[in-house]
Amino acid sequence: MSEERQKVSEGDAHGVHERQYRFALARFEQWALPRLAGALPRWVLPDDLTVLGLLAATGIGICYMLTNQNPAWLWAVNALLVVQWFGDSLDGTLARVRGIERPRYGFYLDHITDAYSTFAIGLGLGLSPYMLLSIALANVIAYLVMSINVYLETHIFGEFSFGYGLLGPTEVRVVLIGLNTAALLWGTLPFGVRGVPATMYDVVGAITFLAMFGLLLVRVAGNLKTLGRLELPGTRRP
Length: 238
Known about the structure:
The protein is mainly α. The protein is 67% helix and 8% strand.
């Protein structure tokens, strides 16, 4: 799918910034989310959806840990991933559709809850029998560092652009649902690396971590190059 950009007002403590989405499913979400938001009853508020997303993320982490007792909990994980997408993606859309945005409040709440949700899901997956804790936490840390970089860019360049390629939060949920379903139907395809047990989750997790790390380095290098042109190095006064 071609690169998509969605531009909306995104406020932070210093003003309003342009927000851009470049993810593979951005076009679908641009079509679906406003329609879903418009169909919600008036008593549903954006903060209600935020709480729903947080509860779903917590439930995902718990259900991943419960797979140590029964792999059937992966079905619950899949269902909660859909619920978490619904709550996490619709809260801001609902506010915009109804014209009740609170830019700075929304900016802060959205990203602090994203950080918690990433940690809860990553920790639960790492404490499940499917992914090594080290790989799960490495992905959590990489995601959070990438987020910090985005917030710095927002402050410096006045543009909120979370896209690092075509893979975003929705795409990650789709990948997890696919892995969970494959694990339920065909198993985890276990193997060993120098005596350390691993699964297909670990392979995907390792590839994802390396991809995030590489994309972050490219983005940081590009930012420094741009800033270097904007702010030429000075010479020391004699």
